[in-house]
Amino acid sequence: MRTSLREDILNAGLKVMFQAGYQGATVRDICAEAGAPHGSFTNHFRSKEEFAKEVLDRYFENVKIAVRSALDDKTLTPRQRLHRYLEIISGRLAGDKWNRGCLIGDFSIETASQSKLLRHRLEAIFEEWRAPFAACIAEAQDLGEIDSTFDPMDLAEFLLSSWEGAILRMKVERGPAPLDRFRKIVFETVFKEKK
Predict the structure, then answer these.
(1) At which residues is the DNA-binding region annotated (predicted)?
(2) Fold of 48-188
């Protein structure tokens, strides 16, 4: 059974927006990628902005799967789970040959100053995204695995913000060095294992 044109258009939007960004992704290009008539877009979506929000939500659902697969793995210590998440994402970025980053980060740069709708959605995404990291960090602190100087929520915010910055540098350099550097430094300083 064929998926609906709406689904085809959303899937195409994710691909095209990754390649061209929000501004560069035209409705025409998205429909062409989906093999859908131009009118189908306006039948399913009120605006490109509303469409982009749905694409972003779809992308974030995939991110949450990676978060759960790493942070819910109780066979690892909390510190190891944090490291595991960064490894999972690094593997995905390697699979894309280092030229595709994070849509959340890309949209944050490109749309936050232009779209109130997307800025508010991105703000909510970051808030939801950091919560499981803060819980994992708090668990690591309770176990004495990492230092308790800083608040877990602040550390989660630092981790995600810094990681997004490393991904941006990775896209510029087209290689893993910024990600490797970030992981090495953060786990030998901020998340250094207590002896």
Answers:
(1) 26-45
(2) Tetracycline Repressor; domain 2 (1.10.357)
Opening angle at CA 14, ends 91 and 163, nearest 5: 40
Name the amino acid, one letter, at 187. Answer: F
pLDDT tens digits along 164-176:
999 999 999 999 9
Domain 1-45 has CATH 1.20.1560.10: no
Which residue in this structure is represented by tokens 């902005």? 49
The answer to whether 137 touches 155, Cβ cutoff 8 Å, is yes
Whole-angstrom Cα distance, residue 24 to residue 162?
A: 26
Radius of gyration in angstroms for the set of CA atoms belonging to the chain, rounded to a whole number: 18
C-alpha distances in angstroms, 1 versus 4, 37, 64?
A: 9, 19, 28
Read off the amino acid at residue 69. Answer: S
pLDDT at 1: 46
Helix axes 48-71, 5-24, angle to 10 degrees: 100
Distance in angstroms (rounded) separating the CA atoms of residues 42 and 14: 17
